[in-house]
Design brief:
By secondary structure, this protein is mainly alpha-helical. It contains 16 helices and no strands.
């Protein structure tokens, strides 16, 4: 059974060696846990579609010669800060909405709200502060990107409730988590085109795939409390679904690269990422919760490889 000593101040599914527990005062641990600072894979997975979009836009901007290297790296810095802030705000919001459910699930009952280490009032204040940081970041972009960023809040607001009315809450997570795939392009060009839209669809398929693997950790508890998920929907046969989802991801990424005129190194990196996605499917054991978490985290490397390929393709042309 997933348990922790009541006075440990920790949450079950975060590594005890994380910097949060080595550097921050104990009184701040619950807030770091609300923001998931002790589990950085979440903000990384939110960040990669943003970074892909920035790098894809840089490749496209090489053709008319409008690219500015300084602006590219400034956008990357902004999206890094924004991803950490907004992932933290979103997780805090999710925990406020899901407090009762989290208290009934073994893996999540040690979180700050169900364990009583943070009040709902303080959680809401903390959420607002993180959202304010995200707003400051958003206001650094052009007007089109600002409006586009505000529109994403609709998906963010709906996601925590999706598990109550659909077997596909991962789809709603994908729509929220993948929004950066259009934001990076909008920040560069002040408009959208087919390439970032296709990139967005690819990121949604990827998100559904990796979050399905993640959801297999909680499938039994979710069934007991009536929470729905693709893990429950796919049951004992998730691999055909993952083949379809990850296959769609690779095809759509390749199409977005073609539409943006990305260089050959982007496709080489995509091929490597495809191998990594196939590996996840081949080794997946849905009855091993620890392995599911490891494979979920492995997608951080997938996102990095795709970004590295796009940046390499851009830098080769720049040089």
């Amino acid at each position: 059974m997933n348990t922790l000593p009541s006075d440990s101040g920790r949450v079950f599914d975060a590594p005890s060696t994380n910097w949060v527990y080595r550097i921050l005062p104990r009184a701040l641990w619950p807030y770091a846990q609300l923001a998931r600072w002790d589990r950085p894979i979440g903000w990384q997975l939110l960040m990669w579609p943003c970074f892909w979009s920035v790098a894809l836009a840089a490749n496209a901007a090489m053709l008319p010669g409008t690219v500015a290297v300084g602006r590219l790296f400034w956008h990357l810095v902004l999206f890094l800060i924004g991803s950490i802030a907004m992932r933290g705000a979103g997780c805090t919001y999710n925990d406020i909405v899901d407090e009762t459910i989290d208290g009934a699930v073994a893996r999540t009952r040690s979180r700050p709200l169900p364990s009583g280490r943070v009040s709902r009032r303080n959680a809401k204040i903390f959420m607002a502060l993180q959202a304010l940081v995200g707003l400051v970041v958003l206001l650094q972009f052009n007007a089109f990107a600002i409006v586009l960023g505000i529109l994403s809040l609709g998906f963010v607001a709906i996601y925590p409730f999706a598990k109550r009315f659909t077997d596909w809450p991962q789809f709603f997570l994908g729509m929220a988590f993948s929004w950066g795939a259009v934001m990076g392009w909008a920040a560069e060009f002040g408009q959208l085109s087919a390439a970032p839209v296709v990139l967005y669809l690819a990121a949604i398929a990827w998100t559904i795939g990796y979050d399905t693997i993640y959801a297999y950790q909680d499938r039994e508890d979710d069934a007991l409390v009536g929470v729905r998920s693709t893990a429950r929907r796919f049951g004992e046969r998730p691999k055909p679904w993952l083949v379809a989802l990850y296959g769609l991801t690779v095809v759509l990424l390749a199409l977005s690269f073609a539409l943006a005129g990305a260089g050959a190194l982007a496709y080489l990196a995509l091929a490597a990422a495809a191998v990594m996605l196939v590996y996840q499917i081949l080794v997946l054991d849905i009855h091993d919760a620890g392995q599911c978490l490891t494979l979920f985290r492995f997608n951080g490397m997938v996102g990095l490889i795709i970004f590295a390929g796009l940046m390499a393709a851009f830098l080769v042309r720049l040089i």
